[in-house]
Amino acid sequence: MFEALAHDLAELPALLEETRTYTARILAGLDERPVTAAAVEHVAAALPEDGGGLRAALRAFESRWEPGFSASAGPRYLGFVTGGTTPAALSGDWLTAALDQNAHGAVGSAAAALERETVARLGELFGLDMPGAFVTGATMSNLVGLAIGREWLGSLRGASTAEEGVTAPVRVLSGTPHSSIGKSLSVLGIGRRRLVSVATLPGREAVDIVALERELAAGPAIVVANAGTVNTVDFDDIRAIAALKSRHDFWLHVDAAFGGFAAASPAHAPLLDGWAEADSVCVDLHKWLNVPYDSAVQFTRRQDLQLRVFENVSPYLGTPGATPDFMHLTPETSRRLRALPAWFTLEAYGRSGYREIVERAIECAREMGARLERNPRWRLLAPVRLNVVCFTLSGAVTTERVAAVLEELTRSGEAFLTPTVYQGAPAIRAAFSNWRTTLADVDRVCAALGA
What we know:
Elements: H1 3-10, H2 12-28, H3 53-64, H4 87-99, H5 111-126, E1 132-135, H6 138-156, H7 161-164, E2 172-174, H8 179-187, E3 195-197, H9 209-216, E4 221-226, H10 238-243, E5 250-255, E6 280-284, E7 296-300, H11 303-310, H12 339-374, E8 378-380, E9 388-393, H13 399-412, E10 418-422, E11 425-431, H14 439-448
Parallel strand pairs: 2-3, 2-4, 4-5, 5-6
Antiparallel strand pairs: 1-7, 6-7, 8-9, 9-11, 10-11
Protein name: Aspartate aminotransferase family protein
Family: Belongs to the group II decarboxylase family.
Cofactor: pyridoxal 5'-phosphate
């Protein structure tokens, strides 16, 4: 065995303890660490000829790279919709690496059974009674749902898209689709131009049901319903969309990347009314579940079609069987056991724990919105419906003014927010989903904004 590798094996308990101590120090400093790091030009170092072992690698990382990493796991990183990692999820992720299971199937490991239990627990949290599987994020979850919908449309024409390819145009209808929908259509060979933008309600991002039905009159399609839009967390009327199935043929895919967690709060669960009738559902987990990147879940009631799309049959892999292995249900054949961090955090904190995390994030978003609304420097662009505050400067707003504000905020190290455009206006988004965030963090962010 190579000398440095043999040494690390012999010293493994001590080296893991050093790594734990170093990790704990980073996490303990998250509240005060600059939320984003200044851009630094890094000169790539050459590959070591021999290497100095793990201890030397830790020292090199600490000096060269760690100072440039953001506090994205912390409570005031409000860009995108970024969660953190709960203590239980962190432990689960360490064990995921230590056990190093290929969670592709049931042979020789309990990994697949644990994933099925975890998916079922998430279904209980969300009120969804459908089989599902873990994937890498919302983009992949949406892609899987759309791929199954594409196969369903082919079956209406008496063909299998999985076998024959896309032989006829596929129409995809949505009011305010996430950018990952267009990306998925590109990957699937459907084409970005097949995404039909359906009219939304006045002053809303929610789809106009009457306009949607007019589009459905043109023939079978895939409908992407939104359960939490990126800018304003608006929700389509999923119940009304599902009711259209009695008159039209369409595949209903619900993109609930982070809005799906409204189900954890009884006060907000009605926003998702009807989503249990969807054909496929996307929920991201490295957002409000607060598990490490990258993790999401996809649900579908048509696993038979899912198997037709993703099956990977080879003599050394075996056949799918009555209960298909996950490698036959998702794009990846080699699959990290992403379910384990999720299992740990659900086991550790349960339904009540996630209700508290979700409701605290909503409380923080509403408090920030109320403060901005009272301050003449700022203007809310939409009601705070859930966990995102969409706002802009008062007066004449330009992209440059917004960029200058965000640059100043980033330089302060107090918070990270992202720019956007809402109804033509340059704007700012503050997205709350981290399990650590409290009203004290809202105080700090608002103070940095002069609000």
